[in-house]
Amino acid sequence: GNSVTQMEGPVTLSEEAFLTINCTYTATGYPSLFWYVQYPGEGLQLLLKATKADDKGSNKGFEATYRKETTSFHLEKGSVQVSDSAVYFCALSDQVAGKSTFGDGTTLTVKP
Amino acid sequence: KAGVTQTPRYLIKTRGQQVTLSCSPISGHRSVSWYQQTPGQGLQFLFEYFSETQRNKGNFPGRFSGRQFSNSRSEMNVSTLELGDSALYLCASSNAGGAKNIQYFGAGTRLSVL
Predict the structure, then answer these.
(1) CB atoms within 10 A of CB B58
(2) Banded model confidence at residue B97, pLDDT cuts 50, 70, 90
């Protein structure tokens, strides 16, 4: 079946540091790929998406490129802020309708 | 446009009881999916409903069931609660539930089983 592997956390950075969270996937077909963010006590918010190979998703300074050849979708941000502290989930849309497969999540803490 | 609304936000139950959780999708969305989130297992797919029909189901026991109404609102029921059912239950809605459709999540219902 499909699977998503995220880099193990937690990740702690200083404000304005560069962020990379690695994500690789295994899937049949051509899934869409997503990054979601979860703040404490809240549900998941869609951060960005890419629907086909070489697409780049971007939002709020975050970026990720759909790399079919390396089956990866790494999340990057050039300069993190304290407000970016949250749990980040990489996910793919399954061939099973209405189902997404998620990575384990990476907790990011940004210190002032 | 209102987002996905889940009620209640918090629930405390005891073992053996049953519980019903509610989810109102984004207006116009016909697909509703349910997930269980726990620290140990992460996010696991429970089931998905589309136009009042369950289309897909994850690997959960029959104690977990759901339904969808004609207005696309969905309920999830867990009977004979066990301690291990303590989790954040998330509902997600999408336009048609296909592979290219984005899922939008509610804030979740946190269930504690004592």
Answers:
(1) 16
(2) low
Exposure pattern of A65-103 as b/e (b: 16+ CB <10 Å)? bbbeeebbbbbebeebeeebbbbbbbbbbbebbbbbbbb
* Furthest-apart CA atoms within chain B: distance in Å: 40
Q: Which residue in A100, A101, A102, A106 has the most chain B C-beta atoms within 10 A of its own C-beta, making it the best mutation to test that interface?
A: A100
For the stretch A91-100, pLDDT in tens is 998 767 788 9
Kindly identify which residue of chain B lies nearest to residue A34, measuring between CA atoms. B102
A97 and B56 in contact by Cβ < 8 A? yes
Alpha helices in chain B, H assignment, sequence order: none
Asked if residue A7 has pLDDT above 90, the reply is: no
Q: CB distance from B25 to chain A under 8 Å?
A: no
